[in-house]
Every structure is written in C-alpha cells, then in structure tokens.
Write a structure and sequence with these properties.
The chain is mainly beta. The protein has one domain: Hypothetical protein YwqG fold (Roll), CATH 2.30.320. It has 3 helices and 14 strands. The strands form 3 sheets. A 6-stranded antiparallel sheet has the order 10-1-11-12-13-14, with no helix packed on it. The chain has a 6-stranded antiparallel sheet with strand order 2-9-3-6-7-8, with no helix packed on it. It is globular and about 60 Å long. It comes from Actinocatenispora rupis.
Length: 292
C-alpha cells in the first residue's frame, strides 16, 4: 500500500528569506507490520546474514553480569535499489543495522550499542539461521516487529538548532512565539518516524554540540532515524501533515490506529527517538547511536 505525506501547510521557502537553501530530501520508510523478504528492505525480522559469520554481541549490556556478551538485535536492512539516497561504500548494495537491546545511557552518541554492516547482497549465498531474541536479554519494547517498507521521498527543513543564526532569527520573526521556534515549523522540518537521511528531531533533548566520527573526526551524518511513533499531535490539534493521507480514517487511541502509528512496537526512552550516525567520509567507520 502506498503512503503519502500531506502537502506542506506553509511555503516557508517564500516566507522566510534564506531558508530555501537548507531544504533537503529525506526518505520516510513508512514501516507496516508484515512478512518481509529476507533479501529485501525491511525493519525487524530476518537479515541476509552470511552462514558462518559470527553474530555480533554487546559486552556493555546491563545483562552482561549474567553472561559475557549479549547477542545484538536485528533492527533494519536496506538495499540500494530501494533507498539509493544512502551513500553505499563502493562494491556494496546492502546495509544492515543491529543494536543492543539495553539502553547504555549515552545520549550524545554511543559507538558500542550499534553495529552497521555494509554488504554486496549477491555475495551472500548461504543464509545463516538468525538467533531468536532471548526475553531474558532484551526488553520486549526493544525488539522490532517485522515490518515491510514503503519508501517515500519528501522535502524537509533542518531542526531549528541547525539553522544559521540569521535564518533562525527570520524564522522566529515569521511567527513570533514564546517558544524557541514557531511550533508550526514542526510541520515542515525534521520529519518524525522512521526515515533515512535528512535531519534528526531533538525535541526531547539538547542537540549535541558536535557530531563527528569517533575514528577520523569527519562530520557524522544521519543514516537512519528510529522513532516511537510515525507522527505526533500538532500544536493546533489538527491532523499532522506527517500522518499519511491513506491512514487518516483511523480513530486515535484505537488498536488499528496504534498499529499504523507505532508499527514496530519499539518504545524509545521517554517515548522519543534515536538516530544512527555514520562517518561522512568513510561510512565503514564505527557508527554512533544518539538518543533523544
């Protein structure tokens, strides 16, 4: 099923001088519960993992007092055919992300709690049997339910803290507010939900003063954002632009609504979101998982 983001309610490129230069494309993934193909793009479920390759473990999980290393959880697999916006290293066309099911408590970027693997899908001939998540090692809300994806390209503007001071000043003048930025800006900036690229939302914590690769110091860029919900309420109480048009017949707070608004069943700290950041110079360098 196709999922469509609503049209922008404001033409900020025309109304806020200088903002147009900071427009960027993000790919909303629109996860929905399903039975994904092991070789395709999906959230949760089985990865295209080579037989004989050790499954990664985390030695910093809070459960490691009971065993030397806890098996990490499969979170997402994306192909270049579906999300060509990702800068895949030469010779690769598949990216896989796994994480530790235990929150490490380092909001500014923990390189130990996430692993990113870049592969050439055709090289995986024999597929490994994926270990099942052990309830004794992982909280249920950290295990993504298998979801199929429906990538959609949308234009967004950066999180307000990323804007230059002069552009932010004009944005605040556009709709004066006692808040740090006009609440209406949420409808066109830093899309919520699961997405690739663009700008991460930092509405639950301060944006880190510096996001760089821990190996070489190059700027780190958002590979993928994970979110508790695909959209949230607007300041006006009207349906959010980010609520897909095709799902607006669902009644809030019902089981059918929650199934599309929170499809993965994952609950991030404080009901927020997190992002996997990779090196902009060498994507193969260790990634960082930043919590909001």
């Amino acid at each position: 099923m196709t999922h469509t983001t609503g049209p922008p309610p404001y033409d900020l490129a025309a109304e806020v001088p200088g903002l147009a230069a900071y427009a960027r494309t993000t790919v909303r993934l629109h996860p929905r519960r399903g039975r994904p193909d092991v070789r395709g793009s999906h959230l949760g479920g089985r990865l295209l993992w080579p037989s004989g390759e050790p499954w990664p473990t985390c030695a910093r999980s809070r459960y490691c007092a009971l065993e030397p290393g806890v098996r990490m959880l499969a979170v997402v697999q994306l192909t270049a055919a579906d999300v060509g916006e990702i800068r895949f290293p030469p010779g690769t066309d598949l990216v896989q992300v796994l994480w530790c099911g235990s929150f490490h408590g380092e909001p500014d970027g923990d390189p130990e709690s996430v692993r990113v693997y870049w592969r050439r899908a055709a090289d995986v001939v024999r597929i490994a049997r994926q270990p099942r998540p052990d309830p004794a090692d992982h909280a249920d809300e950290s295990i993504p339910r298998p979801c199929v994806l429906d990538p959609e390209r949308v234009t967004e503007y950066p999180w307000f803290e990323e804007l230059p001071a002069d552009v932010l000043r004009r944005l605040r003048a556009w709709r004066p507010s006692p808040a740090l930025y006009p609440p209406e800006y949420d409808e066109v900036s830093a899309a919520p939900g699961y997405k690739v690229g663009g700008s991460m939302r930092w509405d639950g914590a301060d944006m880190p003063t510096e996001l760089v690769c821990t190996s070489c110091g190059a700027p780190a860029e958002l590979l993928i954002q994970f979110d508790t919900a695909e959209w949230s309420e607007t300041a006006s109480g009207q349906p959010s632009r980010w609520w897909p048009v095709e799902d607006r017949d669902r009644t809030p707070d019902t089981a059918t609504y929650v199934r599309v608004a929170e499809p993965t069943g994952v609950w991030y700290p404080r009901g927020g979101n997190c992002g996997v950041f990779v090196c902009s110079a060498v994507p193969g360098h260790p990634a960082r998982l930043c919590h909001n």
